Amino acid sequence: MQTTVTLPVTLSCMEITFRREMLGWIGATHFLLEPIEGDVPGMFAELRCLDEDVCLRSGAAVPSPRFLMLTPWYVWPSYQVALDDEFADALDIRVEEDATLLTIVTQRVPLERSTVNLFSPIVVNRHNGLADQFVPAASEIEAGWRVRTPLLPPRPADEAGEGGIAC
Amino acid sequence: MLTLTREIGEKIVIGDDVVVTVISVSENGRVRLGIEAPRQIRIDRAEVLERIRRENLEAGEPSDRHAFAAYAARQASERSGSKKEVVAGR
Fold it and tell me: Could you give the ipTM of this predicted complex?
C-alpha cells in the first residue's frame, strides 16, 4: 500500500521535528514553520532551524539555516507524491489526511533562476510535527518531478536562449 | 575499501541482516543489485542523496525570503489565474 499525498493544506505555525537531520545540515532536526503573509496566504512559509549547533560535513559550524517553503499546489495543481510504506510508517502517517507536504525553494540571482525541489519534498505529520525529506526510489525522470524545477517564468529576454537552469 | 568479486546470483552479507545479490550484469557494464535489509535501513542511490544534499545547502543560504515570496506569489497569481483560485479556496 502507498500513501498518496495530494491535499492542499492550510499552513499554520507549528514546530517540526525531523526524524533524522536534514540532508546537508548536520544537527538540524528542530524547526519552526511560520507562514508568510502576502497576496496568496498559505503559499509560502519560512522553515527556521531552532538548533544552535549546526555544522556542515566538513565540521565547520554554521548559523542555524532558514528555508523558504512552498505549498506546491499553488503552482502545480496536479502535484502528488506516493510515499512508500516504510517512509509513512516512520512518521506515523496512516492516511492521506495525516500528512502535509512542503517543497524547498532555492533562491538564486537572477530570481528567474530560482527553483523548487519537487522531487524530494518535506513530509510532515500534521498531528505531531514529525517530518522527513522524502527521497523517491525512482529517478527524477521516472518520478516526473525534478530537484530543480523553475518557479518563475523566464524573462522574455531569456526565453530564446540560454536554458541554463536545466538539471 | 574492501573489494569482492562476485558472479551473477552470488550474494554478499553486510552485518547480520543485509544481503546484496548480483542480479544481472549487462554488456554495457550496468549492474543490477537486489538488496534485502531491515525496513529502518535507508537505501538510496548515492548520487541522488548527494544532489539533494547540495540543493538543501544552497536553499539554506541567507536571503530575503519574505521579499522573494511576495514577488513569486504575485507571479503565480498572474500565471495560473483561475486554477489558483480553486486551490486557494479550500
Answer: 0.87
